Amino acid sequence: xxxxxxxxxxxxxxxxxxxxxxxxxxxxxxxxxxxxxxxxxxxxxxxxxxxxxxxxxxxxxxxxxxxxxxxxxxxxxxxxxxxxxxxxxxxxxxxxxxxxxxxxxxxxxxxxxxxxx
Length: 117
Fold this sequence. Notes:
- The chain is an all-alpha fold.
- Helix 1 runs antiparallel to helix 2 and helix 3 runs antiparallel to helix 4.
- It has 4 helices and no strands.
- It has a single domain (5-116), classed as de novo design (two linked rop proteins) (Up-down Bundle).
């Protein structure tokens, strides 16, 4: 397994879990835009991490990790809105939300490490 494969796999699984979750969100004027943004940000986090892994330089790597982090933060925010708004059962959203928070911490730490080298 190459370095970063495990994180890439977790980000893909997060994006897939979010896709399925978004399909369950009741369609309304307020929840449909949230579900759409949530799906986009989770997919973008996975895609940007894949881009970071193919970075052309250290600075490019750090920059793309930063974008990944921003997308994960956005994903976390949308998930929190669904949680607090009680749009779906908490037990349906909570595990995805918690995994997103963990991935945020991992990406932030990776970025700090890369900057320090």
